Amino acid sequence: MAAADVVISFMLLVSIYGILSLGLNVKYGHTGLLDFGHVGFYLIGAYTAALFVLGPDDPTDFTAYIIGLGNVPVVGTWPVAIAAATLLAGVIGGLVALPTIRLREDYLAITVLGVSVIFQRVIQSETWLANGPDALRGYSPPLQDLFPLAMETLVGPAMFGLIVAVVWGIATGALGRLRGSDSRLPLDGVYTVTTFGLTRLRRRTDALGSATTVSAAAGAVAGLLTFALLVAVDPLLSLGAVVSLYTWFVALVAVTHHYGGLGRREGLFGIALGTGLLVALLPLPLIDSVGLKSALALALLGALVAAYYLGVTRVDWLADVKLAVVGVGALWFVALWYFLLPILGPLGDGDVGGALNILVQNVVWLLGFGGDTGIGYAVVLVGELTVNVDYARFQLAAFVLFLAGLYYVLELAVRSPFGRVLRAVRNDETVVQSLGKDPFVYKVQTMVLGSALGGFAGALWAMYAQGLTFTTFAPRVTFITLLIMFLGGAGNNKGMILGAAIFWAFQQATTQLASFFPPAVRVNIQAFRLVVVGVLFLLVLYYVPEGLLGREEGTSSEVDG
Amino acid sequence: MVAETGLLNAVVTGVVTGSIVALGATGLALVYDIAEVPNFAHGDLLTLGAYAALLVNKPDTVPLFDLLSTGPQQVGVAGAAVLFVLSAAGVLGTVYHLGGARALKGSWWGFDAPDGVALAVHGAVAALVGAAVVLGAPAFPAALLFAFVLLGAVVPLLESLIFRKFREKDVELALMLIVSLAVAFVVRFGIQTIFGGQIRYYTVETTVPFFGGVLDFTLAKFFDFFLVDGGLTLAIMESRGDALRPLLVMSYSWLELLVVVVATGAVAYAAHRRRRGTAGVVGPRLAATLSGLAVLALGGAVLQGGGTGVPEAAIAATRVRTSPLRLSIIVLALLMMSALHYLLQATTLGKAMRATSDNRKLAMVRGINTRQVMMSVWIISGLFAAIGGVMLGFLFSSITINLGFNLLLAMFAGVILGGISVYGAILGSYVVGLAMEVGIFAIPGLSATYRIPVAFVVLLLVLLVKPEGIVGGS
């Protein structure tokens, strides 16, 4: 699997868990309700969505479920399924809240944890409901049969146009936010070009002039242009390359914007950390003996952590940037893994063309390469490339659009008067009461909203996983969501996305490491990485309890201004 | 006539379940009440205890430690030395937690003793326990003892390494909850990192000599109660394959029953009156219960008529299906609770604990060593968790990574029902245990996976009516 495909499945998971964590953040981060049973609503969303799109139950086969609405027109489609999952999770969230919400926070946490376990047990024991302890399968995600896209018809270009519209719109939106920073790059010029001149709209003062509208419009234009070009001529590879390069450019701008403040030695220390991590992991693929390679890798990792610890405690200039250097190191490590490691093999054999080929595949991440179907290209120096657009890319565009949309709506909600009341409930209920507002009502509304987001994430999970088992919905999911929330910063919506990204980056990286071990000890390795996750969580809670991004307090001046 | 299992069977099973829950819930409640940590890791401490006992019971299956093993359930000299050192270190470590080197010199004894004497006593106890574990291995009691002393030393480390750090930062209760959840994660998957994913079990010799014959204490026994015209008949039977073998038949006439019941009531009432107003170890209610039970047992033994066999016809009959192992869990739980009761009521440390529970600030002002109290709470929590976990592993005869976590919700239900106090938690645990088993029995079509949900429904109902739990008033 190419590195780009790994990253795409990673981003799908980040979207799902980002939405799940946004839901928990509404409950705990904004309102202060500690919901240890968040996974219960995720479960309800997943199973509801699956039952909406499954065909009617066939009594003769081995699976059994209460109802399958897949054959009903309109009702049995994914949009309705997602909407129903969201609604039902929200309603049940409200019902759970009614008796529990008045309890002390620790009692609340334990009782809702119990409620989520009850949901799980119901799925497990009631075989008629959703196939009991066995997996619920037999449905497919929407529009999957269109992929890989055929560019000869109109449908193919239209779908690719949609994907480009989403990617372009989000990249442009990000660029628009970064534009204000002082940078040596000509950001304003690039922004004018990539918005197709629509940036003139910003001069207007009404809703049309907002940055979000401009990015959305730019995305739409890009999508339409893609569609037109694909129908007229056949430049799939070039289009993919242009859009991918644009996203890399925005990512680069974001990184330099974020870490531009670091001096040269700080940056070099970060790069040294990232390289050190790579070196520490080298024994795993190179040495055969399990005991020896784990001991060596652990020793090297320990040395790296010790060096970092000594650095941030003894050296003054490092102490101020201790988190930033880790960020630089992680990015450097990811960059090495993404760009350098895959081409080392061909380069070692002296196959420069093969190496370039792989590099192109990873840079042009928007397109899938290889496979039997697709459009063949022959490129100078790089060689043969078979290009296609697979389903994962489409799903990614959809999921990221959902995440971005929900994030945007929640940001609006947080800054609204409603959001301010929620924060007041979290800080001091008596104040809320004295102002004539009933905290109980707001808490129930919060539970409904947060649980609905959990249900939405569950529906996306059902779509992504294409099969549901009750074991997936263990209390562990709530734990991971809590970790994501505290990592990013409770009360900070942007932090949820960052936290989900960090958690899943760690998961993906360590999953790959487990493949260097014989199957017999893989369970132990998987368990060990969860121990590391737990220890990291404790360190986060102790050293950075506010999270990496900290709490974002929307003050009234900010809202008014 | 053949008796069927009924409500009485569910009640007895419920008491067994309640005893296991209580073994866990006692430690959970102590820590919750005094150290103010709603410890989500407590279930995993039970798991830790269950796995620790494997070092003694089945050393050949423990990764790394199996290198020192010389055969099935056998350890060589080096392995024995490791076990000895670990158990002795467990004892000394437990004492050390009570106040460092000063505790080893007897500062926690409650009376003045020369340093040398205290050191010698602690050393001797440690050596004795170590020797008992090594000589007793791989038998079950030795494994139980090993887990007991090991967890007594290991569990307080959670307090001194993690929870105290957070408490010093004055974090909210919600954050403490999340910290304990992270600790639970680390403990559970730390165990799995070492032991892997496969299911384990203890290998124990389950037959013991009994009245000249042999008794398998894990095999089910049937206690059949028959109400016949003449009175009550109790038949104890053992099942071997399809055949039922009566072990003991006891029958009582109506008159005898009446005498026993009246005598029990009278003695209990007298004991209650006699102890009323005293605040000693044996209070009025405990005195009444103990003396009543004694009279009941004595009367039952003395008046049992000759076994006439299982009656042919009966007005009503019910069967209780249980095993000596299950009954011994009840006894063990009661013994542990009696020891804790004694500690709380009759020792200086216990008084300090109760005072800290009532009002921590006031206790500090009055010069109570709250840090020592805190550590002793964690030690007791660890000791109870070890017993609970090992007994749970033995009862289920399958030790998995989720062994304790599966029981955590029941324990929390018990603790919250009891309003977060030790005595309340014991009561709450039995309520939860009975609710689980009677609920499964009484509601038709409810499968056994619904045990925990039933406990939670009870908890939710109680919280709806009394948000502070049954016992808690303040």
List the helices and strands and how they pair.
The complex is a heterodimer of chains A (561) and B (474).
Chain A: H1 3-30, H2 38-53, H3 78-100, H4 105-125, H5 127-130, H6 155-178, H7 187-194, H8 211-232, H9 236-259, H10 264-281, H11 283-286, H12 290-314, H13 316-319, H14 322-348, H15 352-363, E1 368-369, E2 375-379, E3 383-388, H16 391-415, H17 417-427, H18 429-434, H19 439-465, H20 475-488, H21 493-514, H22 522-543, H23 556-560
Antiparallel strand pairs in A: 1-3, 2-3
Chain B: H1 7-35, H2 42-57, E1 69-71, E2 74-75, H3 77-97, H4 100-104, H5 115-136, H6 140-168, H7 173-195, E3 207-210, E4 213-216, E5 221-228, E6 231-240, E7 243-253, H8 254-275, H9 284-303, E8 316-322, H10 324-346, H11 348-358, H12 360-365, H13 370-396, H14 405-417, H15 422-442, H16 451-465
Antiparallel strand pairs in B: 1-2, 3-4, 5-6, 5-8, 6-7
Describe the structure.
The complex is a heterodimer of chains A (561) and B (474). By secondary structure, chain A is mostly helical. Chain A has 3 domains: 3-143 and 397-474, no CATH class; 148-259, no CATH class; 262-350. In chain A, 70% of the residues lie in helices and 2% in strands. Chain A starts with a helix and ends with a helix. Residues 556-561 of chain A have low confidence and may be disordered. Chain B has 474 residues and is an alpha+beta fold. Chain B folds into 2 domains: 7-205 and 324-465, no CATH class; 220-322, no CATH class. Chain B has 16 helices and 8 strands. Chain B has helices spanning 7-35, 42-57, 77-97, 100-104, 115-136, 140-168, 173-195, 254-275, 284-303, 324-346, 348-358, 360-365, 370-396, 405-417, 422-442, 451-465, and strands spanning 69-71, 74-75, 207-210, 213-216, 221-228, 231-240, 243-253, 316-322. In chain B, the strands form 3 sheets. A 4-stranded antiparallel sheet of chain B has the order 7-6-5-8. The longest helix of chain B is centred in the first third of the chain and has 29 residues, at 7-35. Chain A binds chain B through residues 28, 32, 34, 36, 99-100, 102-107, 109-111, 113-115, 117-118, 121-122, 124-125, 479, 482-483, 486, 521, 523-524, 527-528, 530-531, 533-535, 537-538, 541-542, 545, and chain B through 38, 162, 165-166, 169, 171, 173-175, 177-179, 181-183, 185-186, 189-190, 192-194, 196-197, 409, 412-413, 416, 447, 449-450, 452-453, 456, 459-460, 463-464, 467.
